[in-house]
Each structure stands twice: as C-alpha cells, then as structure tokens.
Amino acid sequence: MKRLIVTTIFLIIATVLVTVLYFKNLSPPGVRTGQVMHAIPDNAVAVFEFNNEKGFYEIFAGNQLLGAFVGHDKLSELDTLRKLLIATPQLSQFFEGQNIFISLHPTTNDDINLLVTTSASKTFSAAMFNNLAAASKSVLQVSPMQIAGSQGYNIFIKPIDKHFYIIQKGDNIFSGSFSKDLIDHSAIYQQDKGHNGFVPLPEQQNANSLANLYINYNQLNPLFDQLFQNKTTDIFKSFRLLPAYAALSLNYKSDALMFNGFTTRQNNATSYLNLFSDQQPVENHLKDIFPATTAYSVSFAVSDPEKFEADLSQWHDKAGVGKEKNELLNKVKSEAGLFIKPEFEKLLGNEFAIVTTRYFEKFAIISVKDGSKLLPLMMNISNMVNDKVGQFNYEKLPFFLLGDAFSVFRKPYFMIIDNYLILAASVSELESYSDTYFNRKFIGKTDQYTQFDNLLAERSNVAFFINFKNTQQVLKRDLKKPFYDAFENSSPGWKNYYGAAFQLTASDKNFYTNFCMRLNAPDTSTVKK
What we know:
Layout (H helix, E strand, L loop, with lengths): L1 H25 L6 H5 L8 E6 L2 H7 L3 H7 L1 H13 L7 H4 L3 E7 L7 E7 L12 H4 L4 E8 L2 E8 L4 E7 L4 E5 L2 H9 L14 H6 L2 E6 L3 H8 L9 H4 L3 E10 L2 E10 L16 E2 L10 E8 L3 H14 L3 H15 L3 H8 E10 L4 E7 L2 H10 L1 E3 L4 E4 L4 H6 L10 E5 L2 E5 L2 H12 L8 H7 L5 E2 L1 E6 H11 L2 H9 L7 E11 L2 E10 L10
Antiparallel strand pairs: 1-2, 1-8, 2-3, 3-7, 4-5, 5-6, 6-7, 8-9, 9-10, 10-22, 11-19, 12-13, 12-20, 13-14, 14-18, 15-16, 16-17, 17-18, 20-21, 21-22
Helix pairs in contact: 4-5, 14-15
C-alpha cells in the first residue's frame, strides 16, 4: 500500500513538472501577453497582435495585404518606426521575440490614431532610449519628458517628419503613438478590476498563430461616428449593436486576410444578434440570389423559425416595445380579421436578408415555405397596386415580424417571387429586383464573387458582406471627406480589396467567427451566362 502511495505521489509530481515545462515552452520568458493587453485602453476598437521576429516581416514583405488594410502611409510610418527603434542594434536584443500590439482608437479628429504597445526583456532600461539619437546619425531627436506622472519620451523622427511619444507603464511595458492625446490617455488609463475586456487567446493557440485580431464591438459605434457624416448609416449596424468581444487568429493566404476564432457575448446584454446564438448553424443559400449590383448585405439564418419568433417576442418586451407590438397586432386583427404574426411564423423559412445596391436600392429578401400561401395573407394587410405588388397598410410590421434589422422598412411595398418575399421602399425597386431575378443577374454568377465565396464558411447564422467597388458611391455620400479621399486615392488601399465578409456561427451560446478580406483578382468581374 505504501509503495502504491509513493508511486502515485511521484506520478503526480512528474505530471506537474511536465505541465509546467510544457506551458513554459509555449510562453517564452519575457512574453507577457495578458499583462501587456491589460495596459491597452479599453476604448480600442481593435487590436492586432504579432510577434516581433524576422519571419513575420519576411512573410508580408512585398505583399499588398497589410498595406491595403492599414494604408500604405501608415504602414510605412510603422515600418520606419520599427527600423529606427526596436530593430536597431542597440535595442533589438531587448525586443526580439516580444509580442507587439497595434490598437485602433476612435478620436474626434479626421485621422485614425494607433497605439503601439509591447514589453521589453527585464534587462532593458528605459534610459537606453537616450542613446538612440547619438547612434542614429541625426535621424532621431530624443527628449525625455513626464507624461501624467509616467516616464516618457518625445522622439522626433526626421525621415517622416513626425513626433512619436513613448511612455513606460511599469514592468517594462511600453506604449507609443504619433498622437499626443492618445498617449496622454494611455498614461492615465487603469483597467477596472473585474472588467472583462480583451481576453488573450489561449497560450497554445497564440503560440501557433502568425498573428491575432481582437475586436471590441462596443467601440464600433464611436468609430463609425468618427468616420461617417451620415450618423444613420446601416453599414455593419447589427454588429455595432452587439455587446461582445472577439479573439481571432490569422490564417495566412497570399491574396486574402482570413481570421477565425470566437465572439464572446458580454454578460446577458440585450442584443438582436443574441437571438441567433441559440440556433444551429444553417447552410447559406439566400446569397445566391443577391443582385450583381450588391454593395453590402446582412444575412440571417435560423434552424428553428418558431423558436426564433418566440425569442424575438421576448426581445421586444425587454426592449420596451412589447406594448406597441401588441397594439399593432390587435389593430391588424380588428381591421383585417387576421392573426398575422402566427400565420406569418408558420410560413417563415430559414433565411432572411437585407441587401443594399450600388444604386442605393434596398431590398429585404425573406425565404418562405410556400409563397402561394403567403400571398393572400399579404394581400389582406396591404393596398394592392396590381395583382403582384402591394404596399403594407401598417407601419413597422417588418420590425415586429423579423426584428431590429428590418426597422428600415416601415411601410414597404412587397411582392412574392417563387418562395421569396421581397420588400422595398418603392415599386420601381421591386421592378428592378424582378428584372434581376428573372434574368439571373446575380452577384453569385460573377467570377470574383465565386473566388471570394470559396473562402467563406458554408454555414452561419449572421453574415455581413461588402463589395468595395459597388459600395464606392455609398461611401462617397456617407463618409466624411478626408476618409473618403483616403479610400479613393490610397494605393494600395481598401479599394484594392474585392470584398470583406464577417460571419457569426452559433456555438455554445456564443459565436464562432470568420472574417475575410480578399484582394481583387487580376481579371475583372464578369457575369456568367
């Protein structure tokens, strides 16, 4: 018995030692991912993480992916900064192999402010920054300064004619920015205890990842307020209203940025998109009938339409519009003699979407189980223009039948084609979609879209898609002029990408997430006959 106990103790000790050594190897000395991330102010919209090692820079050397994503000018500035600071012979040994975090923060000006945060090895002293000016052949001017009580440095970088501000945040963690306002904010930032913000990826996943992307959905609205002069733009609207954080890993492809990971909902906050986390993943087909002129779209898919409708009713109650909904449905019952909600629920299919075209047309496309049975229901609640097209007699019905994303259709016109209910703001828009449908003018028939779609997951519950060429006129109307000018004139820039997609797939009450941006293919997009 004693021998058995001794053997067991030795096995436990061996297991502990192997575990410690294993995780020690996954997290090299000096790499403190979680600690560094906690130093990043929580108003960051996104954080891009990569390891400061030669292989990473070699992979993207001469590749347009990051230049088009970040912007050539900003990427050039960051690269100059790297070469003159952490890659110098004097400092490289202290920053080699450390994780670097570049975070994006909303501001009130017409520029995008970036914060660079990293850690140095324990043998590094901030005073070594003072030696850079003498060793850099007069391309740097280094001036020590105090920033909100922290040791800081004002570094003037002559090749790009800009000041870069650095602060030490303790434990050899450093943050730097070209924005003095942002570095001031970073200097005084202290994360609240118990605050569940950006959460690093598990060590093993982090060690095996080329780069990671963290997204704070809560800060998308402030960013959009900065970018757009049209405060009511519905681009990415549903995602902007989702209280959640995402942690995604980069899968390298020469012509596409592809990230995947998880979006974690924040507590039990009320959000329309949360309704889809209780569904099962659904194979996406509705995108096959989107117009070739699609600028951007948001698609929804449910495995159980009845459960979705029940959850939607609870969401309306929590949102404080339950009384208004009941009053409207009672009015429909009184005037049309129809219990529209349960009748509509019986016929609702698994997918519904909103599509905006390059011509500013906006369609709701809703799959139904039997279009012939739905038509008489729609006729009962509408004023018919002809035998195929009518206008709803009641405002906000789409919002109460399908949820927040459909609030843009207050009193729409409708038509039914096969097993699809189509909503639009005018008869002419419905005629436009009818021409698209019957003449098969679908974006899914184009070569560029086919190549792009091959990179996406076949199943999801919520999906956003944007075609940058088709969206250009929408952006010209809605973006603030400096940001649109950057979009139009930067080369490489976002216009060099064909499109982007963001997919949420229900998984254990949260969402498995795919984010993809693909560069334009060499040949132009053509419609297949």
